[in-house]
Structure formats: structure tokens, C-alpha cells
């Protein structure tokens, strides 16, 4: 391959567009590099070093852009769009760090209705009326244009398998990338979203303070109804120099219900951390009660009865004073 073109491709991280290449080399040089097997056209006017294509994926007839590493495929799609569209749906979800990108995934771009972009093998183009290719509709992540987080999450909802839809929204709220209120406002602008009722219910649970699938399960099946107090969720407690967050806090009874997920089961180190935390909370009169995921899911009625009995036994327990400082998260 021509040395000038080779340097240009290397500076572009293995990628070059026709417009950039023909600023420094004649058109025939680019054509010869493709004929010689040094470059591969992965999208119109976008070329990638042939060595960067996954050879095994090529045997199943996959389009060239689908044979690239996901990060390079995202760059190729944006280079092809030339500012007329932004990565969206699952492609944007990966750029937001909320889904692990998979080689061979269909690439998604959203573009204004009159942008002139049409889908290509390996690339889906979603036309959206009123889309502005700048804030607040589109932002830059890792150097690439992507749809805003709330729109990305809602766009991805119907594309993901039903069992995988909730996790990105839960993670986005936990990581403080967005809030249930902002997501609910965005949902209000998408009246035809597939399985919209389930999405709205999830956002309601997140707004109530649930921060995991286990907490949502507990809210729906165990810790509501007759006799249950209005638990405060994710309550911040400061004891001395340490700050802790309580899953479910019954303030009158000074009981903290902790929901232990499967990842903590059988981990001696985590168990030791939990024991020290529980002992510290005991110094300010807070009783910690832990329920494992197995019991919450398979013994919900028993967990409910035990919780009600514990709460009844704690009523009237005096507060130890202002040693433990509480605040909503």
C-alpha cells in the first residue's frame, strides 16, 4: 500500500474516509489499496485496514462493518453519517457504558427525517422528526455523537429481550447518570413504546427508592400491604466518620431490612464487612435484619410474617439520641 495512505490509515486508528484520503493521494491509490487487499470498504466512502476484520465472521456472509471490533464499527458508522446522524439504541447504550458491546451487533443510527441517510447492511437508520443533532437531543461520548441518555434507554427498551430491558435503566439511576423523574418525563414523550406499562411501573419503583431487581421484588411481593410501615429506602446514616445506606428503614421501630443478593452469599470477606456494619448501626439503636435472595423469592410469606413480628417487638423502643444522623439519599 502507498506509504502516505498507510500513514493516514494508521493515524486514523485503522480507518479512513474517501474524502480525507483524496486530500493527500489520488483516487487510484485508494482503489489500488482495496484491490490489493490492504483496505476494505465497510460502508460507502469508509475504508478500514483489512487486518482489522474478523476473518471467522466473514464465512457466514456478515457485512464487512459487522466484522469489526465494536469500537471501530461505531467509528465507521459515525464517519459514514458525516454529522447527519448519531449513534442510538443499543449502539448508544454501549457508548453510555450500560451494555457490553458485542461484535457483529447491528449498528443503530438516529437521524432527522430529511437527513438523507438510509440503512445499509449491518446498519439500521431510524428517522426521527424534530431530532436536533446537538444538545439536548445528541451529545458526545468518547468522541462520538450519541443520542441523550434518556432517549437511548427508551429506544433500547423494545430492542432488548424482555428479560434484559430493566437492567440498563436500573444501572443508569444507580450510577446517577439520570433520575427516575427525567426518565418519566422522556417516557411521556413516547406514547407508543412497546410494553410501556412495564416501563412505567419500573420507573415508579425507581422513584420510590428501589435500586435493584431484588428490592423491586421485595416491594411488589413482601414489604407492602397490611401492617407494613412506610419504609424509607436508601436512607443515609452517618455514625461517627462512616456513612452507610439502609435498604429499607422503619424509622419508628428503628429497624433496617437489608436484602442480600446472590453475589454476597457465601463470601466470607463480605460477611465480615456486613457484621461490622451491623454492629456499628447497633450502637445507635438500629437493628439490622438480613434476608437472602433465596428466602425473599421462595419464602415470601414467611419473610413477611417474620418482618411483622420483628417490627411489633420493636415498637416503643426508645431512640438513643442524635448519635446516628439520618438523611434521605
Descriptive report:
There is one protein chain. The protein is α+β, with helices and mostly antiparallel strands and 329 residues long. It folds into 3 domains: 3-52, Arc Repressor Mutant, subunit A, CATH 1.10.10; 70-207, no CATH class; 215-328, Endonuclease, Chain A (3-Layer(aba) Sandwich), CATH 3.40.960. The chain is 37% helix and 21% strand. The chain has helices spanning 3-11, 18-21, 27-35, 70-81, 89-95, 149-156, 166-174, 180-187, 196-207, 213-221, 268-282, 293-298, 300-314; strands at 15-17, 39-43, 46-49, 86-87, 107-112, 123-128, 138-141, 144-147, 232-239, 242-250, 255-260, 287-292, 324-328. It has a 5-stranded mixed sheet, sandwiched between helices. β9 and β10 (242-250) form a beta hairpin. α5 (89-95) packs across α6, α7 packs parallel to α9 and α8 runs antiparallel to α9. The longest helix has 15 residues, at 268-282. 31% of the residues are buried.
Write the layout of secondary structure elements.
Blueprint: H1 3-11, E1 15-17, H2 18-21, H3 27-35, E2 39-43, E3 46-49, H4 70-81, E4 86-87, H5 89-95, E5 107-112, E6 123-128, E7 138-141, E8 144-147, H6 149-156, H7 166-174, H8 180-187, H9 196-207, H10 213-221, E9 232-239, E10 242-250, E11 255-260, H11 268-282, E12 287-292, H12 293-298, H13 300-314, E13 324-328
Parallel strand pairs: 5-6, 11-12
Antiparallel strand pairs: 1-3, 2-3, 4-5, 7-8, 9-10, 9-13, 10-11
Helix pairs in contact: 5-6, 7-9, 8-9
State the main characteristics.
alpha+beta, Endonuclease, Chain A, five-stranded mixed beta sheet, three-stranded antiparallel beta sheet, 13 helices, 37% helix
Amino acid at each position: 500500500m502507498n506509504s502516505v495512505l498507510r500513514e493516514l490509515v494508521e493515524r486514523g486508528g485503522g480507518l479512513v474516509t474517501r474524502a480525507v484520503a483524496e486530500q493527500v493521494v489520488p483516487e487510484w491509490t485508494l482503489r489500488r489499496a482495496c484491490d490489493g487487499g490492504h483496505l476494505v470498504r465497510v460502508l460507502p466512502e469508509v475504508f478500514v485496514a483489512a487486518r482489522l476484520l474478523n476473518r471467522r465472521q466473514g464465512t457466514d456472509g456478515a457485512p464487512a462493518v459487522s466484522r469489526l471490533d465494536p469500537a471501530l464499527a461505531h467509528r465507521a458508522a459515525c464517519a459514514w453519517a458525516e454529522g447527519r446522524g448519531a449513534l442510538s439504541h443499543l449502539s448508544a447504550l454501549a457508548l453510555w457504558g450500560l451494555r457490553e458491546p458485542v461484535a457483529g451487533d447491528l449498528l443503530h443510527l438516529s437521524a432527522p427525517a430529511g437527513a438523507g441517510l438510509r440503512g445499509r447492511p449491518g446498519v439500521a437508520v431510524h428517522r426521527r422528526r424534530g431530532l436536533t443533532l446537538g444538545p439536548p437531543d445528541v451529545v458526545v461520548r468518547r468522541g462520538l455523537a450519541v443520542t441523550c441518555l434518556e432517549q437511548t434507554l427508551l429506544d433500547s427498551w423494545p430492542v432488548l429481550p424482555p428479560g434484559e430491558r430493566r437492567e440498563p435503566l436500573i444501572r443508569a439511576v444507580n450510577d446517577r447518570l439520570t433520575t427516575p423523574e427525567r426518565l418519566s418525563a422522556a417516557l411521556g414523550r413516547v406514547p407508543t413504546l412497546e410494553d410501556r406499562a412495564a416501563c412505567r411501573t419500573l420507573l415508579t419503583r425507581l422513584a420510590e427508592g428501589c435500586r435493584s431487581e431484588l428490592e423491586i421484588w421485595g416491594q411488589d411481593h413482601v414489604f407492602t400491604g397490611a401492617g407494613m410501615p412506610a419504609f424509607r429506602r436508601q436512607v443515609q446514616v452517618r455514625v461517627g466518620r462512616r456513612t452507610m445506606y439502609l435498604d429499607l428503614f422503619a424509622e419508628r421501630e428503628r429497624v433496617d431490612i437489608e436484602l442480600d443478593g446472590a453475589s454476597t452469599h457465601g463470601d466470607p470477606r463480605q460477611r465480615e464487612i456486613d457484621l461490622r456494619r451491623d454492629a456499628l448501626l447497633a450502637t445507635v439503636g438500629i437493628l439490622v435484619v438480613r434476608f437472602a435472595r433465596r428466602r425473599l423469592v421462595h419464602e415470601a410469606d414467611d419473610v413477611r410474617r417474620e418482618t411483622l413480628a420483628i417490627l411489633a417487638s420493636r415498637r416503643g423502643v426508645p431512640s438513643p439520641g442524635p448519635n446516628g444522623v439520618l438523611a434521605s439519599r
